[in-house]
Amino acid sequence: MSNTIPLSQPDITDADVRTVIAALRSGRLSMGPYVEEFEALVSRRLRRTHGIAVNSGTSGLHLALAALGVGPGDEVITPAFSFVASANCILHVGATPVFVDADPRTLNVRATDVEAKITDRTKAIIGVEVFGNPTGMAELAALSTKHEIPLVEDACEGLGGLIGSDRIGGFGRIAVFGFYPNKQITTGEGGMIVTDDDRVAEICRSMRNQGRAPAGMDGGSGTGSWLAHERMGYNFRLPELNAALGVSQMGRLDELIEARQQVAAQYTRRLMTNGDLIVPTIESDVRMSWFVYVVRLSDRFTAADRDEIIAGLRRHDIGCSNYFPPIPLMPFYREQYGYRPGDFPVTEFVSQRTIALPFFPGLTDREVDLVCQTLDLMMTRLTFSRQ
């Protein structure tokens, strides 16, 4: 039996398995009742009018921009510190990403920094709740309203999170969630677009299904046949098996969030006294649903130090990773747009010192203690090796 503590691990129950098997035995494996139920469960939870299930959060962001008419010649403002899909979706529609540096406290973007990047070519703003933290999203929504520029909320890391009484997924004209295995709930692969805009929802439903008219998706009852296509589209459908898992997992969302909160609290209690670590900064009115638990090394440590600490943790069979490299400094962005080190100083500084620790609902207190002890040991060894 392995003693490895993985970086992440999905929480799958016997009930989840039974639900997926029931979908498999139904004979309806695409665009069936489980997709519809999953869409309804998520949209009701978020108090949004429409839910449109897709095969990934990345696909959802792509469709969101396409539904807004974003294309070549347009600019879309997006964070420099995020998962790469927050920028790649802009390239997918032929538009130009305009990056904004991170707030050093929250790691989200500040509305004032976003406003400074708005031009007459700005067609949309992508706001990301980094690691599931919604701080600053209300200000970004207000900015969007002020300039009449639609906000696309990349909520892929924050299902179930709140700031005050406002829910993650309720700030943007469109919001997108992801259900990869390390998320609050998982469908294996999958995503969900939510919106109150009827026209946007209709376009997204059509484009996810090869451009077919939404009313005719069952192949017989709509405005055209299964082979009639109203617009260019994509095969971004979520299979019934994945949706069935999502339906089952949504029934345990609050339970899963509570478990994640307990693990996060244990980490924070254990690590907050370490003067060389910065634990996640969460405002008092924020209820995190916790996507990952990422600590940051103090400025006494370099990127090379961080990498050495990660290597040490892995030698002790502890899964860990850096989170996130600066998007503008990834090779294809540097080559296409000419970004250079120093262009986004906060993002670069933070990115060089982040460590994502093992994080998932089933992580025990003993395992958390072992991770923290090993992290302390690796940091201490590195400090002594310099003397």
Question: Can you put this structure into words, describing what you see?
Answer:
The structure is a single chain. This protein is α/β, with parallel strands linked by helices and 387 residues long. It folds into two domains: 14-250, Type I PLP-dependent aspartate aminotransferase-like (Major domain) (Aspartate Aminotransferase, domain 2); 253-385, Aspartate Aminotransferase, domain 1 (Alpha-Beta Complex). 39% of the residues lie in helices and 14% in strands. The protein has helices spanning 14-26, 33-46, 57-67, 85-92, 111-115, 137-147, 198-208, 240-250, 253-271, 303-315, 331-337, 345-351, 365-385, and strands at residues 50-54, 75-79, 96-100, 122-128, 151-154, 162-163, 166-167, 174-178, 191-195, 277-278, 286-287, 293-297, 354-357. A seven-stranded mixed beta sheet has the order 1-9-8-5-4-2-3, sandwiched between helices. The protein has a three-stranded antiparallel beta sheet with strand order 7-6-11, with no helix packed on it. A three-stranded antiparallel beta sheet has the order 10-12-13, covered by helices on one side. Strand 2, helix 4 (85-92) and strand 3 form a beta-alpha-beta unit. The two termini are 39 Å apart.
